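re the bet — no i am not wrong, look at it urself. input seq straight from the record:
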Amino acid sequence: MTVSALTSSSSDQTTSSTQTRLGLPLVLNNGSVIPNRFAKSALSETLGTVDLRVSKALPKLYQRWADGGVGLSITGNVMIDRRHLGEPNNVVLEDERDMERLRAWANAAKSRGGQVWMQLNHPGKQTPKMLNSDPMSPSAIPFHPSMQSFFATPRAMTEDDIHDVIQRFATAARLAQTAGFDGVQIHGAHGYLVSQFLSPHHNQRTDQWGGSLDNRMRFVIEVYQAMRAATGPSFNIGIKMNSADFQRGGFNEDDAAIVATTLADLGIDLIEVSGGTYETPAMAQGRESHQDSSTTSPMKESTRLREAYFLEFAEMLRTKVKVPLMVTGGFRSKAAMEAAVASGACDLVGLGRPLCVEPDLVNQILSGNDFVSVVKPIKTGVKLIDKMALMEVSWYERQLHRMGKGKEPRRQDQGFWSLLDVLWLMMYRGLFNRIGRLRA
């Protein structure tokens, strides 16, 4: 059954209210059912053990979101190669050693009838020096000078490197399926390896993996096809991809539309739309703050009221593909979520930060309550700190850690106290990881 067929058949059984639409199930093209239109977008939990395994905190955290009514939970940043990490305490999936813990994670996340998909990722050059002093990327292009003290210049990947990574994505997908996850998501956004291959700024290869868009998207196509071959047609495979990098000479919306339509034609089950990279973090601070200087224009009031950063791109993409779309970034109110689904621009509302501090928001909305998230920018008054996304991201990670311990998240600290909380966490984590490496 197609998504359009579901909407048509459901219209005879429900009212036309947009609230009801948020509670409707979504049937994917392979027949898989997501029970409502709310999705927890991937958040990097950094709740793996020191030796990169699944911790007891992860099932507890995902049980909290399941109890809160989320229809689809997408895990954060499970890495496919322990030599290449995005952050300390990532979970790495290379073999079956963690199968019992993985099953516990999957079972908790879908215990209330929702689905859980595992996000699979390779950071490429976007790995801190303290974790990897010899990163790799499509081309040996360094980060912006302001970030070179944190990230080493990568080496260009060899042909063998490329095929090894493709196989690692396929192996991880098969293992996730065995563990009981309902699907996997390729992390093709935010400047990680798949995104690096797609970007003409980061990928300046002259072989079959670079140059034209056809060549630059060859990597993600082969990753998808290898994963599909390893798991079969009924297993869900999605992708999180940038609408644009918001970086001069980078991946743009025209490129994104072609990549999305190509993957849709190949049978991908869900496309999540996001944007930005570490150098231009639209995903963390909002599209309006990180536009390419050559295209900057004031944000329209109508766009601001719709909240979601990437909804206009999704509307354009909807005219080209029938595959279900998920939009993540900026949703804060029930009204905006209802309007986005009712308009047909997206099929799933992707939520990140709101679910860090209000894990039961889905149940609140589906119970008929008005809802406006408490989430707002955290300001310390120190311009250098406030300009960086790291402090806020770390504060939200801290709330995930609280829920992983069975505690309630903080609604939202402000200013200096948020900074102190994050500094304490970073010092603790740094000491903990140094001890772990000494014991290893």
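see?? The two ends are 51 Å apart (CA to CA). told u. also The CA atoms of residues 207 and 215 lie 8 Å apart. so pay up
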